[in-house]
Specification:
This protein has two helices and seven strands, in the order αβββββαββ. It is an alpha+beta fold and 160 residues long. The strands form two sheets. Strands 3-4-5-6-7 form a five-stranded mixed beta sheet. A two-stranded antiparallel ribbon has the order 1-2. α2 links the parallel β5 and β6.
Length: 160
């Protein structure tokens, strides 16, 4: 899943949700450029991950891999996939921090559910995951039964 995190981050599509194996989206054509890729999850692109030399491989297109990313929701500055500061992509493609002062257990449950992370382990006193200096933040208002934060009330604010 760490390789998928790098893919989603490098194309600015949020958090990796799922890896699709065995040419799920169809077999590619032509030369295979990367094989045996091992990322830590912090790299800026797959090219920065440990791997065989470009073009060196021992596989066929039947092993081509796909990734599903969340597109509008991600966690940043965490030490693992299901921990970090919550950001939401708004119109214009900008990522906005979710304001922790308005974050209840209901919002945390929806975020964890959407990212397939189980139940939240932290209550109202959220851990600080670093820089929150974005000029505009997001307040969420969820009922707690939503499957996506896109179904919650979303309001931009000057607070972060």
């Amino acid at each position: 899943m760490l390789n998928a995190e790098v893919v989603c981050n490098s194309v600015q599509c949020g958090t990796a949700m799922q890896v699709k194996q065995r040419a799920f989206y169809g077999e590619g054509k032509g030369r295979i450029w990367m094989d045996d890729v091992r990322c830590t999850g912090k790299e800026a692109s797959l090219a920065d991950c440990e791997r065989r030399d470009f073009g060196s491989h021992n596989c066929g297109h039947g092993e081509d891999v796909g990734v599903i990313c969340s597109e509008h929701l991600k966690l940043v500055n965490g030490t693992q996939r299901c921990a970090g500061r919550v950001q939401v992509r708004r119109g214009g493609g900008q990522w906005r921090n979710v304001c922790k002062s308005h974050m209840s257990v209901k919002e945390q449950e929806v975020i964890c559910r959407e990212l397939n992370c189980g139940v939240p382990l932290v209550g109202p006193d959220l851990i600080d995951f670093g820089d929150q200096s974005a000029p505009i933040g997001i307040n969420l208002n969820c009922l707690g039964n939503e499957t996506s934060i896109m179904q919650c009330g979303v309001k931009e604010t000057e607070e972060t």
